[in-house]
# Entry
Amino acid sequence: MSSADQLQQELRRVRREAIELHSSDQVQEAIGKLAFEVTEAYAGKVPVFVTIMNGGMIFAAELVKRLDFPLEMDYLHASRYLGETTGGEVEWLVTPNASLAGRDVLIVDDILDVGSTLLSIIDACKAQGAASVKTCVLVDKQHDRKARPGLKADFTALQAEDLYLFGMGMDYKGFWRNAPGIYGVRESNS
Ligand SMILES: O=P(O)(O)OC[C@H]1O[C@H](OP(=O)(O)OP(=O)(O)O)[C@H](O)[C@@H]1O
Ligand SMILES: Nc1nc2[nH]cnc2c(=O)[nH]1
# Structure
């Protein structure tokens, strides 16, 4: 069997055997609730909504259309997993733009796992002179390996157990970002 066929088999097996932690409907409901919270927090402000590529893009698209205040959209690309299932150093692929100076910045990403990615992005936005920086994630993975004890995003839609997650923007080896719920890879596949 060719390596492309082997990969395709693996990807289909991982999806078939995955544990569904949050269904597509549960994800949509949680994003709806979060949108109210974020809308309340930004009353009277005109923030920059910064999507962290690639993982943040599906959550960001679902969230942004439910926010009822004027905002600008921008994006950053920082990655420390680079298609792997364990993280390394944060690598900047697209750096923050100087137009963040003096702005209220809302960082939007798919997952807070260890949190090194978000901490690095917060520092970079502050270094650009952002007036305020808040973070918003679809899912907070529950474990005691956070980069700082008790680290949390300002806004969190859902929590999930300590498995490698995919779906709703999160990848398994670069694939399955398109899966509509949040799934955990079974130990035998990770
Ligand atoms: O909390 P941490 O342990 O730092 O991990 C969280 C980060 O990991 C993923 O990005 P990844 O590096 O996989 O890049 P991607 O968004 O391009 O998939 C995810 O999108 C977060 O940005
Ligand atoms: N896809 C994915 N990316 C991550 N980045 C940090 N943790 C995870 C995870 O569980 N899944």
Q: What stands out?
A: The longest strand covers residues 132-141. The domain at 3-185 is CATH 3.40.50.2020 (Rossmann fold). The pocket of PRP (ligand 1) is lined by residues 52, 54-55, 79-81, 87, 109-117, 171 (CB under 6 Å). Helices lie at 3-17, 24-41, 57-64, 116-127.
